[in-house]
Amino acid sequence: MSSAWTLHERLAADTVPVQDLALSRLLVMRDARFAWAILVPRVPDLTELHQLPAADRDQLMLEVTAVASVLAGLPGITKINHGALGNLVPQFHWHVVARHPGDAAWPGPVWGSGAAVPPDPAALEQLVAALATIGPA
Amino acid sequence: MSSAWTLHERLAADTVPVQDLALSRLLVMRDARFAWAILVPRVPDLTELHQLPAADRDQLMLEVTAVASVLAGLPGITKINHGALGNLVPQFHWHVVARHPGDAAWPGPVWGSGAAVPPDPAALEQLVAALATIGPA
Known about the structure:
Structural class of chain A: alpha+beta
Oligomer: homodimer
Low-confidence stretches of chain A: none
Number of helices of chain A: 3
Largest interface: A-B, 32 and 32 residues
Distance between the termini of chain A: 29 Å
Strand order of the largest sheet of chain A: 1-2-3-5-4
C-alpha cells in the first residue's frame, strides 16, 4: 500500500513553495548564491525517474522546461543546469539551476558546493513571483 | 543556417560509443570509477533542454530512462544520478550515472569529482554490451 504524498522534510526546510503544477510541487531554494528551482512530482514513494509512467515523465519535462525557460531569461544567466541525484534525499526531485561564469560554483556543479547563503527576502520574493507566472498546467 | 551535427571533440575523447538511438548517440565514459552513460541528441547547435521540441524531449526521456533501467540493474547499484550541465562542454548532453554508497564520489556528484581512472578494457566492453541491448528505438 502506498502512503499519501508529503514533501520530504529536508526539501521543505531548504526551500520556499511557489505553486503546485499539474504533476509537481515547485519550490525555490533558500540560497542567495543561485536562482535554483526544485520540482517534486507528487507521486508517493517515487525515488527514480525511470519509475515514472511515460505520461507523467513527459508532464514532468513540460514543467521542468517551463521553469528552465523562466530562469534562462533572468538577467546575466547564460546556462541552465539540470540534475536529479537523490543521494541524500531519497524523494525524487529535479533541480533547475540558473548559472553564469563567475557564480559561486562555476564551472562546477552546485550540488555539494559549499553552504547556502541566506537569501535577501525581496530577491527571493521576486524569484517566486517570476516562477508563479508559469501557471498551473 | 545550421551546421551538420557532429559529436563535440571533448565528449568523443572521454567516451566510447555504444550505438545511435532514434534521437541520441549513446556513449559510455572511459572511467573505471563509475558506470556512466552519456546521451547526446543528434540535433545541431543544441545547448539547452528547453530548446528541444516537445516530441524530441519526450523521445530523449524514453532513451534516458531505458539507459537508467539498465544501469540500475547492475550489481551493487542503489541509485541513478541524472544531470545535464554543459558548463564546460556546450553541446547538450545528458549524464546517467550508476551510484552506490562508498563509490568514489558518494554522496557528492560525479561532476568535478577528481580525475577519471582508465577503465579495464573487459569491464568497459561488458558495460557497452549491456547498453547495446536497448535497441535502436
